[in-house]
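Per your request, structure below.
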């Protein structure tokens, strides 16, 4: 039984990989892409069908999300940018949708993938893998956080100019009077700037990945229990996990806004 449980867990934690780039995770890519298209499609549909009169339920829901994101931007972002609003909205909705895949029954999509692979390609079901929570893939969370890092650098250069950004790398956080002290402190400032620059994407990526991986693993462990215990434990955990997936999407969005706000401000 222990071996069966071990094999079950290992199977559910194995990515569907391609032979490109050392094992490209196909499931993380395609599921995140489909969810991104779903987000864009729904919001585009609501924007086209929006009415100035009495809005429908879907329009009310979308307007509630947009207003929430807009309020957070007004409170946390102190610069001016036409990009920050769509960016923050996209991050919150997209990360939330990817996190929400954890609420699906553990065996639902992997079983369908096994049936599809066996029926149409003759693949051995035991060798057909599918992980349905993209944010439980550290590669995807790091890709997102590195994109945020590039935007931080871009926002900083846009606000301060290339020379101003390079100057800040060597003159902050420790300021000095006189050329000699500035030269002495320049390597120290640069080292601190590199640490700060590296800490931001690492904290973004690992926080989201750690929470979602832990949630995914708990759902898998609950699925191993008898069906009646599964329902008794799985239902309250799923309800609690709704708060977790929403909070993690909100935190990722808020930290992105704060980091970009810091990027356009002078130390």
């Amino acid at each position: 039984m222990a071996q069966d449980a071990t094999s079950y867990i290992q199977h559910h934690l194995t990515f569907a990989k391609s032979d490109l780039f050392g094992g490209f995770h196909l499931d993380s890519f395609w599921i995140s892409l489909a969810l991104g298209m779903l987000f864009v499609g729904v919001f585009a549909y609501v924007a086209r069908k929006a009415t100035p009169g009495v809005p429908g339920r879907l329009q009310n829901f979308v307007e509630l999300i947009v207003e929430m994101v807009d309020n957070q931007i007004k409170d946390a972002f102190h610069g001016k940018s036409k990009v920050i609003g769509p960016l923050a909205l996209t991050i919150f909705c997209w990360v939330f949708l990817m996190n929400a895949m954890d609420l699906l029954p553990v065996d639902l999509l992997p079983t369908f993938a096994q049936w599809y692979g066996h029926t149409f390609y003759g693949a051995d079901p035991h060798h057909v893998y599918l992980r349905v929570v993209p944010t439980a893939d550290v590669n995807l969370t790091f890709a997102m956080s590195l994109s945020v890092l590039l935007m931080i650098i871009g926002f900083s250069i846009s606000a301060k100019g290339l020379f101003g950004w390079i100057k800040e790398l060597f003159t902050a956080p420790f300021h000095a009077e006189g050329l000699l002290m500035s030269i002495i402190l320049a390597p120290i400032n640069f080292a601190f700037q590199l640490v700060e620059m590296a800490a931001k994407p690492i904290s973004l990526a690992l926080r989201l990945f750690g929470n979602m991986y832990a949630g995914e693993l708990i759902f898998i462990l609950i699925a191993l229990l008898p069906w009646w215990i599964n329902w008794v434990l799985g239902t309250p955990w799923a309800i609690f996990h709704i708060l977790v997936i929403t909070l993690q999407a909100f935190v990722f969005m808020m930290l992105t806004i704060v980091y970009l706000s810091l990027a356009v401000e002078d130390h």
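The two ends are 59 Å apart (CA to CA).

Regards,
D.
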